[in-house]
Amino acid sequence: MERLNPEQSFQFHDEGYLVVRDFFDPAADLDPIITEYEGVLDRLARELVVAGEISSAHANHDFSERLIRICQESGRIHAQSFDFSLPQRSIQADTPIWNGPAVFNILRHPQLLDVMEDLIGPEIYSNPIQHVRLKLPEDRAIRDAEGKIVQGITPWHQDNGVIQAEADDTDMITVWFPLWDASIESGCLEVIPRSHRAGVMDHCPFGGAGFGIPDKLLAKERAVPLPMQRGDILLMHRRTCHSSLPNRSNRVRWSFDLRYNPIGQPSGRSAFPGFVARSRTHPETELHDPVAWAESWQNARARLADDAEAQTFNRWDAAREVCA
Ligand SMILES: O=C(O)CCC(=O)C(=O)O
Ligand SMILES: [Fe+2]
Predict the structure, then answer these.
(1) Residue 54 C-alpha to ligand 2 middle, in angstroms?
(2) What does the DSSP 8-state code read for residue 17?
(3) Domain ranges, residue 105
(4) How far is the CA of 130 from the centre of ligand 1 (A)?
């Protein structure tokens, strides 16, 4: 995969998003992540058996089916056990987090950094706002007492709207990609082309699913679903409105979302550790050590544990009229 051609760069800036097909080599780039996460799931299953939360480790199923069964039997989603960032509240000394070497490798993927270099220049910071999303099939999802799905609902939002205002004027770019094909049926992303051209929009509390833009402010009729295959990547401007469709398939929809910004700009979640992914002027500042990366997250967790004040990440006042 070469770098972005002029039409691709133009589309990114003009429309606020760009899908690049067949960007990753699935076997070389994605399979190591899947293998790593099979280990994470296996250890989680065994821990839950020991804790008496589940009766069997469900070891004779593939990753998707095994995860669904473990969630259903324990009645919990376990999303944090797989994520490579910390949650936005209630961080504790033992909050689970997964910062394995296969994850670090994709953050540093050379061609991905080349594309970033095309878009934001050669001084590239790996922004710590980054997630794995394991979205269970809707008919087997975990629900709360009111019947609402506990995890995997992504309301319409701009990434700028769900991080601190200090990052409003940065050049942060979001990279989203599926580990398996993400079809309309299995809950791919949808975007509103050109919505990045307006400013940061109002966001309001959205059930238990964080913050979203109220329907009345959105031109939803212009939304475009973006089915993607394994190996494709989606690049998004920080103000592009997006959400994800429900997962009506029988398999977990599995994706990563990463972010990059020029070195020196605020990340929008300064309590979390990012790192210099590429620097042409100071290559000695680049982080190449997956162990040091994992340690940076463990240190952040220890620092933030039980410190409610350090964990205020949102700017929106739910009492505003627009949220009524
Ligand atoms: O994967 C999803 O459902 C949501 C992803 C998202 O909001 C993002 O990547 O910024
Ligand atoms: Fe987002």
Answers:
(1) 33
(2) E
(3) 6-25+100-307
(4) 10
CA of 242 to the centre of ligand 2 (A): 6
The tens digit of pLDDT for each residue in 176-202 reads 999 999 999 999 999 999 999 989 999
Ligand 1, atom 9, lies closest to the CA of 257
Angle at 296 between CA 293 and CA 299, to 5 degrees: 155
Residue 48 pLDDT exceeds 70: yes
Does some domain include residue 324? no
In contact, 149 and 142? CB cutoff 8 Å: yes
| Residues measured by CB to lie within 5 Å of ligand 2, the ion | 159
203-221 per-position pLDDT tens digit: 998 876 688 999 999 999 9
What is the count of structural domains for the chain? 1
- The percentage of residues in the chain with a pLDDT greater than 70, rounded to a whole number, is 98
CATH of the domain at 164: 2.60.120.620
CB contact burial 208-220 (16+ within 10 A = b; e otherwise): ebbbbbbeeebee
